[in-house]
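Tutorial handout. Part one gives the primary structure; part two gives the three-dimensional structure as tokens.
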Amino acid sequence: MTLKKIVMFSVLFTLLFQSAKAQTPVDSLLLKKEYKSIEEALRNPQNVYKLDLSNQNIQVSDSIWSLFTKLQYLSLKNDHLKQIPESISNLKNLKVLDLSGNDFTVLPSAFIKLSNLQELYLNDDKYLQLDKNIPILSKLPNLKSLHIENDGLKKLPSNIYELSNVEYLYLNNNQLKKVPEGLIQLKNLKYIDLHDNRLKHPNHFNEQEGFGPKIRF
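Part two.
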């Protein structure tokens, strides 16, 4: 390699390094900024990491979601959505999604494309058909925390065991009368919240029987 080429590669490497270094603080600031208006977020959607559209009863075009290529947190809480937009599945970097307080029954089948989703809130969803959603949720490889709070659940569906990746399960403020037996099959569970249910007393689950997660009654 000639001296001229070596110098050129050296200059190019330096410029790339400086560019990456200069970009880091900007990205850090963007990660902290939370947008609360869809109009504001759409001005520069590729730089939006957090978007809180809760309590807005929003009606937006299905096509806009593909614009938010870096979105990691999205809240559509209390927006009374009867259907969850299928194009949300285009949010490949989404890690936390809050769909609490809506009126839908079943998540769209394309929801399984949210391969990076780690935490999902389905609280206060009175029309939620949990048994029909479990086959979809079970296909989310990184879903670790699932919130199903205050949904009026009297019992858990028999297919609850399919949620094999879930580690933290929040079932508080429901109408459960006993610790659901199907939970014993969730081997990765580390924590279950069952407070404010109708539990008369903890049933036979304990560490000696292979059910070792921490339970909050």
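Part three, for discussion. Residues 3-32 form the longest helix (30 residues). The helical segments are 3-32, 38-41, 130-137.
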